[in-house]
UniProtKB/TrEMBL annotation:
<protein>
    <submittedName>
        <fullName>dTDP-glucose 4,6-dehydratase</fullName>
    </submittedName>
</protein>
<dbReference type="InterPro" id="IPR001509">
    <property type="entry name" value="Epimerase_deHydtase"/>
</dbReference>
<dbReference type="InterPro" id="IPR051783">
    <property type="entry name" value="NAD(P)-dependent_oxidoreduct"/>
</dbReference>
<feature type="region of interest" description="Disordered">
    <location>
        <begin position="1"/>
        <end position="20"/>
    </location>
</feature>
<dbReference type="InterPro" id="IPR036291">
    <property type="entry name" value="NAD(P)-bd_dom_sf"/>
</dbReference>
<dbReference type="Pfam" id="PF01370">
    <property type="entry name" value="Epimerase"/>
</dbReference>
<feature type="domain" description="NAD-dependent epimerase/dehydratase">
    <location>
        <begin position="2"/>
        <end position="196"/>
    </location>
</feature>
Amino acid sequence: MTGLSRSATGADRVRRQGASAVQADVLDRDGLLAALRDTRPDAVIHQLTDLADADGAATDRLRREGTRNLVAAARAAGATRIVAQSVGFAYEPGEKPADETTPLDVTAPAARGALVAGVQALESAASEMNTAVLLRYGILYGPGTWYAPGGAATAALAGDANARFIGYVVPDSSVTSFLHVADAARAAIAALDWPAGPVNVADDDPAEGREWVPVLAEALGVAPPKAASGHVPWARGVSNDLARSRGWQPSYATWRTGFASQMADA
């Protein structure tokens, strides 16, 4: 197994975890072609984001241009399968958790419209591979995420206007599905044997913000914000029935215990 990072530090981190590593930037098409030509993978797992500075536009660009370059390089290197990280919060508004037959929110305006367009571009490009499994993840929490102790969600919940965070931590009736990063990784490996198409990957417990925000705040050691009315129409959560039917199940079945478990990992 070979991991790719655009920085020497990231490549070293991959090696410390027992894999080989190459350094390349997916926005550098020629460099990426060379890297994959040398490693000649059978399959590619695509987990590209650029959220360190809470820059949604940078991640949208990675989804569009980076995925396009990665698919071209993978095909040139002889790979036939891709497992790509998509998102489970790009579905159109609705009253129930979305399943994979639910349309994406293609008429969404402004910033959300850009996110959905980026997701569409990612999934379309990935689908040019012989087999493309599109993992529509819930909101990721756990080590290294915004929702871990000391992460950006802590600052946002504490009212820090300078927090580098573009999540939604309002205790209203908007529904969110969560996913621990360890369960996300397990799904990505399992998906190397799955048939093509989109698959929602989230825990078993879609919940309203007025339920999960206070629990997160307590786990992070900050005061919870006051309860709010209303909801964001597209925030509906997802059903994980398809992923479960393929044998995957979350080790962290609910954020109710998963948030607290982060303290032990801190």
